Amino acid sequence: MSARTRPFDALLFDFDGTLSRLTIDFSRLRRKITALAEAFLGEEPEPSDLPVLEWIGVIAGEIALMDEELGKQFHTRGRLIIQATELDAARDAELFPDTRPLLAGLRAAGVKTGILTRNSTAAVKAVFPDVAACCDAFLAREDTPNVKPHPDHALLVLKRLDVAPEQALLVGDHPIDIETARRAGLAAAAVTCGHSQREALAVARPDFIASDCRALVTELAQLALLPGM
């Protein structure tokens, strides 16, 4: 638990699993990428624990060593598979009921808000069409050359908010979000309403952990870490 006493000027949120219920079948997605890679390589690629986006990049690099143009084609087709999978999932997804009221309450209290996601803008807007109007900065996958856990993703959001890293808290449902916060110099909060179990999140040592964003904001307000709340 954090010993912080100075209030946060901004809260940054992950999207899928943190503000919304967007269930992507990652096992099925990996099978599709494996089949695509086999068509290019002539054999199945080595299994990897990397996130799918990064895995596609690695495979594309291997293919490019044999044929640079084929490597580019694989990379493009792999990203299109991800996009189609996200949009399929978005059709059955929904915002958590507290998402809009929570963001509005933070804004009314003078706390800046940002949303950063590895998902595409199209997938997010299928679930949350007014996302840009409900937060102060929104950066999806195509809005940054380096997606989280690269620190640039969070730092670009903070630049748009005009907030220093030490004055912000990043909230997410996956250890990647905690890693992103650490690498970018932000405080980290984990919520257990998404894809990761509490035990896995605790191992990543976030500064705060709560059942969902509403419970987290309530705790932060009780600790006097949110101005105006």
Question: How would you sum up the major sheet?
Answer: 6 strands, parallel
Which sequence of SSEs, written as H and E, runs from N to C?
EEHHHEHEHHEHEHEHEH
Q: What's the helix count?
A: 10
CATH topology of the largest domain: Rossmann fold
Beta-strand residue fraction: 5-15%
The helix content is: 40-55%
Average per-residue pLDDT, rounded, comes to 94
The CATH architecture of the largest domain would be 3-Layer(aba) Sandwich
> Rg, please?
18 Å
CATH superfamily of the largest domain: HAD superfamily/HAD-like
End-to-end C-alpha gap: 20 Å
Low-pLDDT sequence parts: none
Query: What gross morphology would you assign?
Result: elongated
Estimate nothing, just give the exact number of structural domains. 2
